[in-house]
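Progress against Task 2.4 (sequence-to-structure conversion) is shown through the following example record, which the project officer requested during the mid-term review.
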Amino acid sequence: MGFIAWIIVGAIAGFLANQIMGSREGLIMMVVLGIVGGLVGGFLATSVFKIGSVDGINLESIIIATLGAILVIFIARFAQGSRGMSRGPR
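Structure tokens generated for the chain above:
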């Protein structure tokens, strides 16, 4: 998939994931989150679950990238929460 296609799918996936998860990221972070989500979702879908493909701007690619971005948001929130709890009282 071309660079422009990754940005477009990433922007769509990042926006959808932000709406679903209630995040308030900026535009750049939303696109980055969507691209990372696309990589994570694409890897999991094709290598682990042996379903789907992330090979262009289509509904399947957007769904896979969005699910990957949701997973990335969930893991980031979990990591922030556990890091915040380990500091102890101030």
